[in-house]
Amino acid sequence: MTKLELKNIRHSFGSNSVLNAINLTLSEGEFITILGPSGSGKSTLFNIIGGLLIPTSGSVLLEGQDITGSKGHVAYMPQSPSLMPWRTVDENIQLGREIKGQVDRARMDDLLQRSGFADIKDQYPDSLSGGMKQRVSFLRALNTPGELMLLDEPFSALDEITRIDMQRWLKEILEVEKRTILMITHSIDEAIKLSDKIVVLEGKPATIHQAIDVRYISETAEITLKQQLLELLR
Length: 234
Hints:
CATH class of the largest domain: Alpha Beta
CATH architecture of the largest domain: 3-Layer(aba) Sandwich
Radius of gyration: 18 Å
Structural class: alpha/beta
CATH topology of the largest domain: Rossmann fold
Largest sheet: 6 strands, mixed
Order of helices and strands: EEEHEEEHHHEHEHEEH
Number of strands: 10
CATH superfamily of the largest domain: P-loop containing nucleotide triphosphate hydrolases
């Protein structure tokens, strides 16, 4: 089943054309990562999907319904944790459901237990490491109603070891919590490890250069692909 469809998205800021004829389909439960050089329009595309920007032309469809310019249909995880310091871990994770009026204590307790956060649910953000704050930020997005998640360079501020641990933890969580995910990252390794498919943007205005299925890629093919992607991003 098609979850999200971008149809012929174009966008300009005044005379500066940023996106050109972006067509992309995400199936239910699919994890797609967008790669592209800085300034290629990745964040603009996210803002269009989330309803913060109305595209110059084109449309955004969620399960066949036109949601172009509409807000509140996606769960979003930003680059920085953006946690509320006066709220506990538990209360920060609950925020999305509180706003929607859909608090579910049983689900919350199960999520905390499966993610290994039950013992720290009453702590405040200032007592957590950077990696733990990012985990809380992800769980807040995961606990927000709606099956479409946008991850905006979620691990970019983490050191390499913490980043690898976070990727492993994320995969374990998503094996149980089935979501449709669109992620932006500058890390080729991260895109290959986490994604079902990688979409590469290039040019100004940006277009989709290619979409690559990486679910069953061999180690030999992965080495070649990394080099190809590196050249494209340059």
